[in-house]
Structure formats: C-alpha cells, structure tokens
Amino acid sequence: MVRLLPLTRVRPLLVALLLSVGFMPAAQAENAPPFPTDPNSWINSGPLSVSALKGKGIVLWFFEEEDPATQALWSELMISAKKYETKPVLFIAVNSGNPKAKIEVYIRQAKVTWPVIVDTSRGFEKACGLFQEINAQNVSGIRYIKPDGEIVAGLDDLEDAADNAVEGAEWKIDPAGIPESLKSAWHAIEFGNYKGLAVTLNKSAKSSKSDVKEAAAKLMEVVQKEIETLAAEVKETQDNMQNYRAYELYSELTERFSGFELPKDVVAMKKDFSKDPKVKAGMAAAKSLEVARKQLVTGNPAMKTKTLAALEKIMVDFPDTSLAQQAKTLIEYSGK
C-alpha cells in the first residue's frame, strides 16, 4: 500500500498536518452534499453528480495548491489511483478558495488526470465536513463517498479510503465484454459522464464488428435508462408544482445527455419554462447567489447583514432546490 506522504519522501511536518485534519467519524456519516452543477466549477470533466454516481465509490482529495510537497506528491497519487482503474471507484480532486484559471494551470503542471472540483467559495469544502479549511497549515484532506451516497472521513491514506469506498460498489456492465475501442466510452458512462458520447455510440451501433455493435447497444441501453429516469423525475417534479426544481432537473438532463435523443414531451417543456414566473424568479435568485459570494468576502459588516438576509429569503422561496442548498452553504460559511 502506498501512503500519501511517506516519511522517507515528504517532510514530517506534512504528515503531521495530514493527521491533524478535522475528522468526521464514520459513525456520524451523512449523505454527501451535491456536487457543483456549474461547468465552470469543473476541470477534466463536465459536471458529475452524486446521484449519477450512486452504486460507485468516490474518493475526494482536498489539496492546497501552494504547498510544494503536495504538488510533488501528485505522481504518487496517480500511481495509487491507477491500481483501482478496474474497480468501480472514482477519484476526484478538490481545490477551494481559488479561481478556476489559477487551478487549471496548476492541474496541467502537476499532470493531474482526475476530475477536479473548483470550489472557489469553499462552500463544498465545508459541506463535506472539513471545518478546518485546507490552507498552508492544513494542506490536504480526504473524504470518501460510499455506493449508497454516505460521505465518510477518518482516513489519511488514499488507498485505505479507496478500499473502503469500493466496498459494495458495482459496474453497470461487466467490462470484460467491452471491446477496446469502446472502453473509454464505457468508463465515462459508468461514472455518469455522458457528454460527447452520442456520436461514438451511434457510430459503433452501425459497426460491421458484432462485438462492437453488441457492446454499443448495451451501453446505449444504460444511457437511455438514465435518461428515462431523470425525465420522469422532471415531469413528476413539475406535476408537484415545484417549477424551479423541475427546471433545474430539466437543465441537468439536457446538459448531461447533450447529443442523445430525449423524450419529446420533456424537450417541449423548454417553452413552458421560459414563460414560467417561478422559473424566472429562480434565475434571478441564481444571479443573486453569485453576487452574494462576492459580497461575503468583502468583510463589510453592513453588506454581510444585507447579504445574509437575501440568502435566507432564497432558502424560504426556493426550498428543495440547489438554490436553497447553495444559500445554506454560504450562510454557514459566513460564520453565522
């Protein structure tokens, strides 16, 4: 097993710092918070979701970008993760408190291939239970998400976390029957990253090779099932008069499955959403959230009071939506 920060390779202080990360014991495990839905919050991947990854293990590696020892550690982390490439577990890096442009440069230089969450507001970091923020004094942290969606802490070793995360995880389709030409598409579909795969699957479905054609059909079946499930949720949510939440789900459906054929009755909802007053109000609230993120870092007491009041109103007006979740996270992060 490869330790994250072996004493022979990394200064002892860094090991001590890793071990000092605030832990959320397994006994207090909670449901994982939602991943960011904004494409600008991701590097090396389109937006992923906990629900799309249900049934898989997930390891979240939080890192401080200014620490030289942490930067030097990435090659070892990539080697450790490679041991699990045939297992249903996904490694996601998380950086907090920085703009995307800065982290994109870092990720290129460190040759990181994992999906990366850019948590500029630190809201995701805190929602994951890291109440001691990742910084120069606390350079890394680990959380893992079990196949049932629970998020757990208490480990300081990447491979230990992966071993725990993968318990009970399963593939949707046995990789043994997937031709090499479709392995990357299979892997992306298994981990809910469907964007850009429609062309590949449609082309493979017409292949003269029977194994490729059969595998493409199996993969398309998985995708269509996911589409049907999310489309049904969109319609059910709208039927329950949760208009903005329905719009959020509709947006997720069209974004995640861009290029695939979607149910015509759901696609037709776009026109209704564009006219819906509740959806328009939700869009305005989403813009308010972006403003609130900037205002809370100014340190102006009067501005903070006004911003918190606006966030509390969003929670009341848009319950059971990502708007309410984001507003709650910002309020908690503000130290209220």
Topology overview:
Blueprint: H1 12-19, E1 30-31, E2 42-43, E3 57-63, H2 68-82, E4 89-96, H3 100-110, E5 116-119, H4 123-127, E6 140-145, E7 150-152, H5 158-165, H6 183-190, H7 198-204, H8 210-239, H9 243-256, H10 264-267, H11 269-275, H12 277-296, H13 301-317, H14 322-333
Helix pairs in contact: 8-9, 12-13, 12-14, 13-14
Architecture overview:
- There is one protein chain.
- With about 325 residues, this protein is of the alpha/beta class.
- The protein folds into 3 domains: about 150 residues, Glutaredoxin (3-Layer(aba) Sandwich); about 100 residues, no CATH class; about 55 residues.
- It is about 50% helix and about 10% strand.
- It is built from 14 helices and 7 strands.
- The longest helix has 30 residues.
- The radius of gyration is 21 Å and the shape is globular.
- The protein starts with 11 loop residues before the first helix and ends with a helix.
- The N terminus is likely disordered.
Count of distinct strands: 7
Helical residues, percent: 40-55%
Looking at the structure, the CATH topology of the largest domain is Glutaredoxin
| Secondary-structure element pattern, one letter each | HEEEHEHEHEEHHHHHHHHHH
Q: At the first level of CATH, what is the class of the largest domain?
A: Alpha Beta
Radius of gyration using CA atoms only: 21 Å
Q: How many individual helices?
A: 14
**CATH 2nd-level architecture of the largest domain:** 3-Layer(aba) Sandwich
| Large-scale geometry | globular
Note poorly predicted spans. 1-28
Mean pLDDT: 87
